[in-house]
Amino acid sequence: MTVYKRFTILVTSMDTPTTKYQFVNRTKELEHLEKLYKETEKEGQFFVLYGKRRVGKTELIKHFYQNKPHFYYLASRIAAKDQLKTFSAVLADYLNEPFLKNSPFANWRDLFDFLGKKMQQNTTPQILVFDEFPYLVEGDEGMSSYFQYGWDECLKNTKTFLILSGSSIGMMYKHAIAYSAPLYGRRTSQLFLEAFTFQDAKKFYNDTDFEKAFSFYAIAGGIPGYLKQFDPKQTLWENIQEKILPKGTLMNSDPELIISEELNEPQQYLTILKAIGSGRTKFAEIISASNLAPNVVTKYLGVLMQLRWVRREVPVTEDPDNSKKGSYVLADSYFRFYYSFIFPNQSALESMQAELFLKKIKEGFPYFVSKIYEDTTTEFIQTAMREKKLPTFYQLGRWWDKNTEIDLVGLNKDDDAILFVETKWNSKPIGTDILADLKKKSQQVQWGSKERKEYFALVAKGGFTEELIQRARQEKVLLIEKDTVKND
After folding, report:
1. Which of 148, 159, 102, 99 is nearest to 126 (CA)?
2. HSE toward the beta carbon, residue 13, CA cutoff 13 A
3. What is the mean pLDDT of residues 56-71?
4. Are residues 306 and 344 in the same domain?
5. 428 and 295: one domain?
6. For position 81, what pLDDT does the model report?
7. Are residues 314 and 412 in the same domain?
8. pLDDT, tens digit, for every residue of 372-431?
9. Given this model, what pLDDT does residue 12 score?
10. CA distance 86 to 426
11. Mean of pLDDT over the chain
12. Range of lowest pLDDT (68-72, 321-325, 344-348)
């Protein structure tokens, strides 16, 4: 029996947060990985992990493999032959084969032949991690075929838990996930790692008041790498001035870096992102603002939606495939912040003092954060449903027509039930007039039967008047103050 030591390449980074944070949540993801690891006792497992940059893929992997036999390799943007040489040297330490340092493999096929023979000797599952797999493919277009051979012929029938991870969603789709990908059908499991919910994100700022914590979340969009940049001991504006506005900081340079890695024609996409960020959300408005042909805009929007940077919304009561009321929004919160405030005013930022630029952000920030609060209402309502404070509504989304808009509507076709929700980023308690207005607007929604069961909920950062609390109790209206159910 051969059991190889645990081996990790240590990677240093200049992106060190001001405050030290512990590993947060990812309970379900870790449980899934543990399940796969146990199954490796019976047969090899091939797991593909992908997600946005700084969403925590590497941290998840490292947290999972601690105290387990593992090999971790972080690919970099170097020539293919140098990549193979570097990998050979690292593998030499992992397998305790010093000769590999002086005699690196001639190609990846030979490497997998050698690795497969070594893995066949194991009776204990071994974890092999290739992080930033897209960098490997970028250096050698045939890399996916090498991994296909390596898995099919060398590793599949060993106790190997192979993990490929990557931040370039487009490249991961092309080479590992899409039907046409060389590795399609080889993986035994895959996972798109989602950004944190607000409930998870606020754990980074345990002693911080709700408004500041939510403002951090509204900007960072639940991306751990961004959440860690903010110092809760400083004001929101101090954080923006120090962590976002200066050139060269992680949050200032990341959008440009991400776009350059994902897209071949970044300027055209930037035009569309800027248009949506400035409020041009209708298809015709995006065409007008970008000066691009309709078929080109359609193509680029499709790519942006696949990357999950943009999403198309239609009224929740309509069929997304047939609705003509679609609008486009920036699905990534930090992109929404960046392309609403930073990117459109880059030249101004370079020519004016940061304090003056910050003033421009302060003017538009209340509207920005209120829209994120509206989006996050879905999370609050889902929590209320899990806690049995509301019936289950399987469809949740905005609803609007020419004259009316409702922040969130929930549908349950089986029970002929509908939920109406109004959200307010208010500073003073809201009163019964808001509930009355919501009930009036609800009459405009044509859905279900005439006897449909109607439910109402109000979400307010600044709370509710005593009169509204009493009315809500009588009429069984759910009240959520900040992010917590008020009328238990």
Report:
1. 159
2. 11
3. 95
4. yes
5. no
6. 85
7. no
8. 999 999 999 999 999 999 999 999 999 999 999 999 999 999 999 999 999 999 999 999
9. 29
10. 56
11. 90
12. 344-348
pLDDT tens readout for residues 427-442:
999 999 999 999 999 9
- Identify the three-state secondary structure at position 171: helix
Q: Which residues contact 405 (CB under 8 A, 6 or more apart)?
A: 398, 399, 441
Of 162, 166, 152, nearest in space to 57 by CA: 166
pLDDT at 202 over 70: yes
Model confidence at 454: pLDDT above 70:
yes
Q: How many Å apart are CA 189 and CA 220, to the nearest integer?
A: 29
Final residue before a domain boundary, out of 192, 210, 237: 192
Containing H/E element for 243? helix 236-243
Give the domain CATH number at 284. 1.10.10.10
Contact 199, 223 (CB under 8 A): no
C-alpha separations of 10 from 105, 173, 193, 371 in Å: 23, 28, 23, 40
Give SS3 for 26: coil
Helix 354-386 × helix 236-243 angle, to 10°? 120
Q: One-letter amino acid identity for 216?
A: F
CA distance 475 to 455: 9
In angstroms, the CA 222 to CA 59 distance is 15
Cα torsion angle, 245, 278, 332, 266, sign: negative
DSSP 464: B
User: According to the model, what pLDDT value does residue 351 have?
Assistant: 66
- Residues constituting the chain: 488
Q: Quick: pLDDT tens for 133-146.
A: 999 998 888 899 99
Long-range contacts of 197-201 (CB under 8 A, 24+ apart): 197/222, 197/379, 198/222, 198/376, 198/379, 198/483, 199/379, 199/383, 199/483, 200/24, 200/25, 201/227
Cβ proximity of 244 and 340 under 8 Å: no
Q: Are 205 and 64 in contact (CB under 8 A)?
A: no
Query: Would you say residue 232 lies in a domain?
Result: yes
Specify whether 335 is located in the same domain as 393.
no
DSSP class of residue 51 equals: -
Helix residue ranges, H only, 329-410: 333-337, 346-351, 354-386
State the Cα–Cα distance between residues 173 and 184, nearest whole angstrom: 9
Distance CA 195, CA 211 (A): 20
For residues 485 and 477, give the distance between their C-alpha atoms in angstroms, rounded to a whole number: 11
Q: Is the pLDDT reported for residue 5 higher than 70? A: no
Helix/strand/coil percent split, the chain, to 5:
50, 15, 35
Range of the domain at 278: 199-371
